[in-house]
Design a protein that fits this description.
Length: about 190
């Protein structure tokens, strides 16, 4: 489950993190794949997609849209053992409430609860193996990116692991109350919502 970013924001984010994503040892996430994960589900049977979509729609239809702020950069789990390079997302009460609703909906659909704490971020790169790339800390410190995104819908994503990285495809989307459908999903996803 994810919040997709508008294409202009994805392009700006890719430009702002280009030096960081270009470091030797960092596998960058392609600009068109940048998103905020609300709940990683993992591998599930495709038969679960429809129940997940229904539960998410029921859980989010009354929640109004809201803005989120993106900014800053960092790594998970630590600089010495860095594996994920990210741009931060401010955790607000609205975002926390949406994430809880999504988590509860996913569990109702039959997926085990996620024991990890939600840490909102947009992954911009993955580090293939330790040690961290030379210049990582400096490149993170030089990232100058700050923007606001209006959250208007939640997307159910399908991930496929490919040799050049994961490909994420929207398979269904649920609009928040009053939310317009303008995040730029795929044609298949638009057809799935009709």
């Amino acid at each position: 489950m994810a919040i997709l970013l508008p294409s202009a924001i994805r392009a700006d984010l890719a430009r702002a993190t280009a030096a960081l994503r270009a470091l030797e040892g960092v596998r960058p996430v392609r600009a068109e794949q940048l998103h905020l994960t609300l709940r990683f589900i993992g591998e599930v049977d495709r038969g679960l997609e429809a129940p997940l979509a229904r539960e998410i729609a029921a859980a989010t239809e009354a929640q109004p849209g809201f803005p989120i702020r993106l900014g800053g950069a960092g790594v998970f789990p630590s600089h010495r053992r860095a594996r994920v390079v990210w741009v931060g997302v401010e955790e607000t009460p609205d975002l926390a409430a949406l994430q809880r609703s999504v988590e509860e909906a996913v569990v109702r659909a039959g997926v085990a609860p996620d024991p990890r704490r939600f840490r909102p971020h947009v992954t911009v790169g993955r580090i293939r193996r330790p040690p961290p790339p030379v210049g990582l800390a400096g490149a993170i410190a030089r990232v100058r990116f700050e923007t606001t995104v209006d959250v208007r819908r939640v997307s159910l994503m399908r991930s496929e692991l490919l040799p050049r990285g994961a490909r994420h495809t929207e398979v269904a989307a649920s609009r928040l109350a009053g939310g317009a459908d303008d995040a730029g999903g795929t044609d298949d996803a638009r057809r799935a919502r009709r």
